[in-house]
Amino acid sequence: MSDRLFNATQLIGNALSIVSTISQLLSTFDINLDTSASFRRLLETSSEGGGGGGRRGKLLGANQNSGGQLKPNAVVAKDVSGQYKTIATALAAYPKNNKGRYIIYIKEGIYDEYITITKDQVNVFMYGDGSRKTMVTGKKSNTGGFPTFRTAFFRNRKWEQRNTLNLLKRKQRNKFAAIGDGFIAKSMGFQNTARAESYMSAFYNCRMNGYQDTLYVQAHRQFYRNCVVSGTIDFIFSDTSVVIQNSLVVRKPMDNQQNTVTAHGRTTTKEINGVVIQNCSIVPKDKLYPVRFQILTYLGHPWKEYYRAVIMESTLADFIQPARWLPWAGTFALDTCYFAEYASRGLGAITTKRVWYIHYHNHVSLVKHIKFHKGTSGTG
Fold first, then answer.
1. Of the residues 120, 234, 318, 335, which is catalytic?
2. Residue 126 CB coordination number (10 Å)
3. Do the bridges between strand 195-196 and strand 297-302 make them parallel or antiparallel, or are there none, so unpaired?
4. CA 21, 43, 50: angle at the middle one, nearest 5?
5. Active site residue 79
């Protein structure tokens, strides 16, 4: 138990490091996170419910969708009010050897285009008029000859070498790719689209709608706050360190399918990474709600041997299976994976029937072993 608690300490300490580092980065955009003493307590945000207007106002300021006092380098609009009519042309105007932030304001509209933020286009900040108003969308689906919708954020080179064919297929499916380091998106929506391999990226007040593997967190460190991520099978698919705060929504899958929220791919004990889902609302989407007890929904399963995930201080609806977590292939990874829950609420948070390999921490057993200090370092 002491070793597992130490692992939890490392993981959440690493998560806190992500929050602390990115908060400094975002302060230049009038997006401020509270990293004071009150914030240290389990990455606590504000007292309002997940995704609520009060929290959004505190996070993004009075003018949440305009980017505060930002002065954009480029304005994209469907009409004549912008400098550019497409996001791609605004990116093409990225100055060579640019030293500062390149800020793009994308006005309301549906932008159905293939977009790549290249490795040379670093520190790009895009913001829109709202996650339901400024949408980057794709039209590829199973019926068009493509596998289930995927939104793949972050891949690493080692994984690329092992999965070249699958990677090429993903490149064909995804219409938005962020490669340049330091990418930030705010007040935008991504539909059936997107991947990123940018280092230290952040997404605020964004919406990612997909089905299988909606959010593919493949490398580096990422932070998602005030975002709605909706999906079905493994819709948070990760191989690295990621912190997600606020809403998650589970959709109705195809026939004969079940839902799993997380699938993490940690392969060695030396990797100090994992998925931290904190202060989220894991609830069924409209079409799933009437049949939510007929379709099995689990919090996750071990994708790789040393899967690690923590779900903490979240609201879990009544459709979560009592066993909580789903085995992947027989007894694979059940002795080495690390699932943990802490201080969640709702009918789906009852833990009396959870599977034996789940670790439920009460206030004493977890907080006693985790020192929450501002700027706690991590190596994931």
1. 234
2. 29
3. unpaired
4. 115
5. no
Which H, E and C letters describe the chain, residue by residue?
CHHHHHHHHHHHHHHHHHHHHHHHHHHHHCCCCCCCHHHHHHHCCCCCCCCCHHHHHHHHCCCCCCCCCCCCCEEECCCCCCCECCHHHHHHCCCCCCCCCEEEEECCEEECCCEEECCCCCCEEEEECCCCCEEEECCCCHHHCCCCCCCCCCCCHHHHHHCHHHHHHHHHHCCEEECCCCCEEECCEEECCCEECCCCEEEECCEEECCCCCEEECCCEEEEECCEEEECEEEEEECCEEEEEEEEEECCCCCCCCEEEEEECCCCCCCCCCEEEEEEEEEECCCCHHHCCCCCEEEEEECCCCCEEEEECCEECCCECCCCECCCCCCCCCCCCEEEEECCECHHHCCCCCCCCEEEECHHHHHCCCCCCCCCCCCC
Of these residues, 213, 239, 255, 286, which one is catalytic?
Answer: 213
Domains of the chain, earliest start first: 2-367 (2.160.20.10)
> What is the phi/psi pair of residue 187, to 5°?
55, 50
213 is catalytic: yes
- The sign of the torsion formed by the CA atoms of 243, 247, 264, 173 equals negative
pLDDT tens across the length of the chain (380 residues): 445 444 555 555 555 554 555 455 455 445 555 444 333 333 333 333 333 333 333 323 334 455 556 789 999 999 999 999 999 999 999 999 898 899 999 999 999 887 888 889 999 999 999 999 999 986 544 334 433 323 333 333 333 333 433 433 444 445 567 778 888 899 999 886 445 556 667 788 888 876 655 565 555 567 778 888 877 665 565 555 667 887 666 777 777 788 888 766 566 676 666 778 888 998 888 888 999 999 888 888 776 777 777 888 899 999 898 888 877 777 776 777 777 788 889 999 887 887 766 665 544 344 433 332 223 333 33
